Amino acid sequence: MADDRPAAPDAAPDAAAPARPERDRPWVMRTYAGHSSAAASNALYRRNLEKGQTGLSVAFDLPTQTGYDPDHVLARGEVGKVGVPISHIGDMRALFDQIPLGQMNTSMTINATAMWLLAMYQVAAEEQAEAAGEDPATVVKALAGTTQNDIIKEYLSRGTYVFAPAPSLRLITDMVSYTVAEIPKWNPINICSYHLQEAGATPVQEIAYAMSTAIAVLDAVRDAGQVPQERFGEVVARISFFVNAGVRFVEEMCKMRAFVELWDELTRERYGVTDAKQRRFRYGVQVNSLGLTEAQPENNVQRIVLEMLAVTLSKDARARAVQLPAWNEALGLPRPWDQQWSLRMQQVLAFESDLLEYDDLFTGSTVVEAKVAELVAGAKAEIDRVQQMGGAVAAVESGYMKSALVASHALRRQRIEAGEDVIVGVNRFETTEPNPLTADLDTAIQTVDAGVESAAASAVREWREQRDADPARRDRAAAALTRLREVAATDENLMEASLECARAEVTTGEWAQALRDVFGEFRAPTGVTGSVGLTGGAAGTELAAVRTRVAELRDELGETLRVLVGKPGLDGHSNGAEQIAVRARDAGFEVIYQGIRLTPEQIVAAAVSEDVHLVGISILSGSHMELVPEVLERLREAGAGDIPVIVGGIIPESDATRLKALGVAEVFTPKDFGLNDIMSRFVDVIRESRHTETAEPTPV
């Protein structure tokens, strides 16, 4: 019988093996990491690189970021907590041991002291080249990476500034000019809108203030005359951006397309850059840590994925580098396993999905085009407003931009409290099964060994002592610092003097102090001088009830209720403290808020001199167990131990229990999002401390 079945094909049909387009190269994948010590961080970096990470993103601790050695009084409690301490060239060598810098792409989150860290990075690369028998100059030319170095946003949101705007801009200008000539693959600045969003910026404000900062930097570089006009396109080509992506990922994707459009227009029309490649909007991203929740933290995983899509879906506005936070960052410091999970999210999207096989998915979308046009128009109007004030620096010094962000953040908090903005697991869908990921909170995060600070302080003292015990080394360091001060007093580029300081074994604190001697220091406006005021609806009703309670206790005591909001240590993340200060003022309290970077001694002195009824301490850097007990002790020594102290921040439950045992009246963490409830608790705490009869609290 004849076989009527079709013959088997020689090859699989097209339906079984469809042709696949050529894939784009993935973005650089990083993990923001660093803690405890250079050696511990080096081990972490090498493990992450082995797992497929394609770039490094270095987190420095707060003393390094603000120019203090680990043994300085202001470094107390902060050493190795939010990043790695780098005190001198020896630490930089250890940080990158067995990591060839000439082949690496390194992002360094450093701002006020960016020039110093870049100088040490270059010297470490030169030493690696010499040890390998390579030409140091060739390796330096090959260095690739980024220093964050956006000082404007430090005044507005993150608080790790040191100097006033003018000398800070001079340091940036010198770095830009130097790197264009000597390290041509290096991005000397990341215009950083990331922290603006965390400080409350709307998408329009985020775009506008970032662009205003870019204008200030580019104008300063142009006017300094260190770069020939014909090479100015090279300056523009090395300007990068570091942005935020929130969970409203459609709007965030449109924001990135708006950034691309505005940057192309700005660099073409204002600076005359004709090369389209030099005008390309180049940005890296970390998605929104502000939106991560302590309550039901497992929800943070899907938030992170959605936020990653905002900066990867649109090919025409795709990020060049991505780093993702970990699911448990609202609880504390992520462990290596948590960081690996975030890296794997990127790898699944880049290598398992077909995203990189297609051209831009949104070209021709009327919905996207309309939203982008709306954002561009709004940003242009706000940029014009800032320029009319004299530019970004003037808008910082006047307090305009800071006040605008504080107000935006306050309105956002009010929407959350009113339930208009839903946060799953926080203000809606709060019922939950037991979470196995957080069953043991003490092991769900990584903790920094208590001996890290004393070890780092001893090590830096030993470094200085050994250096100075050798007359030649001592004299070279002293001469380098003298030269640094001399150059700072002129308009000469400071980079060469900083490089000599690195080679001469100068410490981070010594380098920064030499510049403080010339430039002085600066305290930025706090942005909480005004009042946001009552809102309508339930939130307004709740606040009115709190105002009534405040007024009743005021009348009982016969005096205005005064609250001191203090930020001890070097933690500059002041958004929470500012929102507490604003709401307390709206609730009828008199608020004393002096800004960031105070010693416990200064906080206690202010509490006593202002005769306050309550001290509120805000700490997000993990230094609460060192600094809060010192505040309590100093209050007792000053005869003011009866003033109640409350604490807010990222504080593990076990630490909260210990703080209350030491005498803290109340501890608030990110899960306590209801500011009106917190204000009502203020009234209770003051009443309890004054031993007045407890009135029936008004429900809020």
Automatic annotation (TrEMBL):
InterPro entries, per the entry: Acid_CoA_mut_C, Cbl-dep_enz_cat, Cobalamin-bd, Cobalamin-bd_sf, MeMalonylCoA_mutase_a/b_cat, MMCoA_mutase_a_cat
- Regions of biased composition (Low complexity) lie at 8-19
Q: Does the keyword Metal-binding apply?
A: yes
Has UniProt tagged this entry with the keyword Metal-binding?
Answer: yes
Q: Report residue spans for region: Disordered.
A: 1-26
Q: How does it assemble?
A: Heterodimer of an alpha and a beta chain.
Domain of life of the native organism: Bacteria
The family classification in the record reads: Belongs to the methylmalonyl-CoA mutase family.
Required co-factors: adenosylcob(III)alamin
Database matches in PROSITE patterns: B12_BINDING (PS51332)
Q: Which UniProt keywords apply?
A: Cobalamin, Cobalt, Isomerase, Metal-binding
B12-binding domain segment(s) = 560-689
Please provide, alphabetically and separated by semicolons, the GO molecular function terms listed in this UniProt record: cobalamin binding; metal ion binding; methylmalonyl-CoA mutase activity
What is the official name of this protein in its record? Protein meaA
